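Researcher: We're reviewing a set of sequences before deciding which ones to prioritize for further study. For each one, I'd like a predicted 3D structure that I can look through quickly. This is Alkene reductase. If possible, include the structure in token form so it fits the rest of the review sheet.
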Amino acid sequence: MRLLEAFRGPAIQLPNRIAMAPMTRGRADDTTGVPHPLTAEYYAQRASAGLIVSEGVWVHRTGKSGPGIPGLVTEQQVEAWRAVTDAVHEKGGRIFAQLWHAGRVSHPGVMGRTPVAPSAVRQAGRIFVDDEWMDTVEPRALGEDEIGEVVQDFATSARQAVDAGFDGVELHGANGYLIQEFLARNTNLRQDRYGGSVAARLRFPLEVVAAVADQIGAARVALRISPGNPENDIVEDDWKEVYSRLLAELRRYELAYLHVIDTPEAEALSHLRPLWPGTLIANLRSEEPTSREEGESLIESGLADVVAFGRLFIANPDLPARFALGAPLAAADHDVYYGARLDGYTDFPAFDPDSAKFACSARS
Ligand SMILES: Cc1cc2nc3c(=O)[nH]c(=O)nc-3n(C[C@H](O)[C@H](O)[C@H](O)COP(=O)(O)O)c2cc1C
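Model: Here's the predicted structure for Alkene reductase, in token form for your review sheet.
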């Protein structure tokens, strides 16, 4: 199986091509943004993944998107993350921190301030705040000086991530949060250096990459993108041009990898793969979780070097072993995806072949 083959890229070397996709689980202390003590065990249980990408972690409290999301800013947070990375490394794994600023996809009820964004364009829909869904609010457009401060927040958090023992950072440029809000025409109405032309809309994402690469070295930096993804009320009808130009700019760095979220039709991957000679991780968004068969075909076709699996990792901590054995896959209830509850977090067992054999012989 191709997914089980080792991967040797210029910047990352992995024992298999199965990555754990970043997944917010909402278990951190909501006041301090410190990850829950069980977080170390949660990720250590999943250390057989070729690479773990952590849940999105905020680089500034204003960029926090919902309850129980951890940060990577304070010393207390860094200490708690160090326990997580130690636990993963002890199990022989590798873990990148996903650095996240939610931009307008937040609420004063979540982080105490008016959310910030490239422009004062409210997101359609509702947002989960403190146990209930509420109307979104109009964000405040960032001033030009403030944009530089947010760039610095990413760089500072990247340094904290390395201090906390992460093997690198993945910048969250997908799913309608701050970085993609700068890229998309419907959320970026600015007429200054950061908006208007495609080149101007690329400026903020590229400044973040440059500042973070400068801080920790490009080989430890990755970027996640989701071209054309309408999530969180994004309209990107010009994604081909925007992302082709983004990749042309990024090629000057030897980044750890580019992480592309696409639909199962793989239109964005087909367009962008020829433009990206570096390491590419792919992940599919659809009703059903990305499957082993889809992963195999992404590698076979050359569209991806590594495939990220999200939902399957929630209930199958030993996903690579299950793929290898063709073992049954467990499913997690949606109710346990997020929240302060501790069930549905570290209590999914690894597959036990003996009890499966017993179950089979008992049935026959
Ligand atoms: C519970 C949950 C939380 C998620 N949190 C994040 C996140 O923090 N950052 C991110 O980039 N994507 C996040 N995603 C999206 C996943 O990384 C992935 O793109 C999506 O689940 C599709 O992959 P899958 O079909 O393998 O689950 C989340 C998805 C789920 C189900």
